[in-house]
Amino acid sequence: MSIAGPATRPASLVAMRCRVSEDRRCGLGVEALGAQLGRRLGAPARSIGAPSRTDGVAAGPAAPRGWADDLRDGRGCLLEAGGQVQDALRAGRLPVLVHGDCSIGLATLPAVARERPDAKVLWLDAHGDFNTPQTSPSGWLGGMGLAGACGRWDAGLGLAPFPPQRAVLCGVRDLDAGERELLERSSATVVGASLETLVYLQNALDGAPVYVHLDPDVLDPAAFPAQRPADGGLPLDKLYDLLEAVAGRCEVVGLEIAAFYAPEDPAERERRARELVGAVDPLLEGASHGH
Questions:
Q1: Mind listing the pLDDT tens digit for each residue in 130-168?
Q2: Which of 47, 88, 161, 165 could anchor a disulfide with 93, C-beta 3.0 to 4.6 Å?
Q3: Rounded to 5 degrees, what are φ and ψ at 44?
Q4: For the packed helices 105-115 and 67-90, what is the interaxial angle rounded to 10 degrees?
Q5: Quick count: other Cβ atoms within 10 Å of Cβ 72?
Q6: Does the pTM of the predicted model rise above 0.90?
Q7: Whether the predicted pLDDT of 40 surpasses 80
């Protein structure tokens, strides 16, 4: 039986242009996805923050920085993202956020937990993003977002954690050793990328309301660009089928897309953004833009 989801209320579309730990091409992705989602929903995205390093020198990614620097400088951006989700949910709208990297979950997931404690989060990502500052080999904040949101380390944002037992990770296939150990000890559910993915996912969600986090690297890098590619991901059509099944059985309470590693060529970038919006279309079925 299908449960009424995003079709029953307007969407609140926000492009978070402020940088946390993403590089320049993910900043370009925010602009491209925001524009395509705006076309899909019938009104432009509301842009918040300064451009995410999309201007200036065109060559290469932003200079790498440590997680503590990114967290300090991106604190306002993270809290604003959480506030946008909270405001939309309180107003009965469907929050649709676009951001440059997965650290955004540090604030958005606690907002979901506050406003919709009945909801689960579906974390679609090639990586677990379940590192902490102690386990991360790279010190990259974007790889710590889910662990911080679930209270496995303190990001200093003053937010109550998202219950890890309500987290369902899907498409995960690239985990660091310490991250894997943390996940195995947690109450989160991990579903890999395999022929049985959809069956396992439906069992894990069990018809609960769901907030969807999508990092496009859950897709096969042979078919879609990724900042940190991991072989063996989902094809675009299988992602569409998966999300169609989720929307058919669960109330979709929100969507965030993070870390779209946009091509440099503008035409290719627009094409890829259009493909990605097409893949998430089941989550937006019947939704309209609202303020």
A1: 999 999 999 999 999 999 999 999 999 999 999 999 999
A2: 88
A3: -65, 150
A4: 30
A5: 11
A6: yes
A7: yes
